[in-house]
Amino acid sequence: DGGGGEQTFTTSNIPNSRAPPATIQWLCDNYEGAEGVSLPRCTLYYHYLLHCQEHKLEPVNAASFGKLIRSVFMGLRTRRLGTRGNSKYHYYGLRIKSGSPLLRLMDEQQHMAMRQQPFSQKNRIKPAQKNQGVANGTPGGMGPQQATALCDISAQLQQYQQFLDTSRPLPVFVDIEVQDRNLPDGILPEHLKAFQALYREHCEAILDVMVNLQFTLVETLWKSFWRFSEAESLSLHNESEKRLPKSCLVVLCKFEPVLCWTKECDNLLYQTLVDMLIPNVLRPIPSALTHAIRNFAKSLENWLTGAMMNIPEEMVRVKVVCVNSFSQMLRRYTSLNHLAQAAHAVLQNSAHINQMLSDLNRVDFNNVQEQASWVCQCEDRVVLRLQQDFKMTLLQQNSLEQWASWLSSVVSQVLKPYEHNPVALPKAAKVFLLNWSFYSSMVIRDLTLRSAASFGSFHLIRLLYDEYMYYLVEHRVAQAKVVTPIAVMGEVLNIVYILLPHLNNRSECCGDTIRLLITRSSLHP
Known about the structure:
Blueprint: H1 21-30, E1 31-40, H2 41-55, H3 62-72, E2 77-81, E3 88-96, H4 102-115, H5 119-122, H6 144-160, H7 189-211, H8 217-225, H9 238-243, H10 246-252, H11 256-277, H12 287-307, H13 313-347, H14 350-360, H15 365-376, H16 380-395, H17 400-415, H18 424-449, H19 455-481, H20 485-506, H21 508-520
């Protein structure tokens, strides 16, 4: 894309526009037509969501916003740009005005993205991208309050985005497989295609707001996609109505192939978001970011069920199971990260390490093995080797990353015989986790009875290693089954969703107990 002369667009006489005048003025104040340049379609929609949040406006969905853009800037064309598998739709012939505060936001995003790329990738940035809004600019064209809000967002990105992996693209979604099924009454093949396209755009919008840590906008996007507004407000979604009427959307939400496809897409989306937010569970994360992620995770189910009030139960069940898997994983990984930071201080303290070695040498491992072998039936040589490796790793005062490498090697050794058997591996993994937990609890019991001075350190390390083992095994099971780790969790949560109504009718206490047990046993075959 080269920067050409400005192109004249019609920004008045907007036909049948129901958009607030403030939004139309905002578009005219911040964007302009220009030949030879382009802007990602999802970027414009993200800017629009920020505008609505600032002015307390109800946003329209992405499709309706696209229609609004075209009514303000006549003659816009859409192109799909980027490498295969990582391409995005762009509005061709549009750029951000030189005086817009949006330029500062774009500049910060580009700066943070380039900081996280290898040097060789920085050289791939084409100079023409500067004409797509990535350039220096001074705030102007908006009110001071909105400019301040955007600057605050930029500051937030500067502070926290270095801990994220914003380079992850949304994976490719396969087509809906109808196979030999007949389409529901009133549903045409183009309705299926429209649902696929709208859902893909919806997921891309969620990824964009999450990359920018705008967690609360996820609820807005859900409400927009599922047409949360009542009949009198359906004009907000008129473009989506043209592509896929809500009556057809409701029918598709009961169609089994669409339900299966939606579950697969959600698992891919949520796994991408987890990997983006917490790319390394052992790397320290600022407490403020951890707190924000955990609060976001706790809000997800209520946001989703509220947005889907008028959607069939079949689709709600699928969506809730997936979003609960996402929520559980975010909370588990942030807890694991917190344990890792606490354990790091212990493992780097020579006095603590020496005391732990001294106390560990007093443990009667023969007695521990006699009791544990009856329950776990582990081979003596395997237990002895793990015990010796643990002591040696402790003696060498290895870093947390070296400990993680050792734990990973243990999992690899145990599961190696089953790595090509996706049916047997989950069972073996489950047995291994139970054995590991039982054996370590016996060691902790011995340390407790001996009033070991380093009991607190051992307890902390044991919590961390149990959680990290679970993390490792979860990923090995997912790899063997060729699914995402979130999908592994989702399979069990689906059972919970089906069983809980019966459990709650009998005993709330029983229900709570089985909730915990089933959730923690998500490595079922």
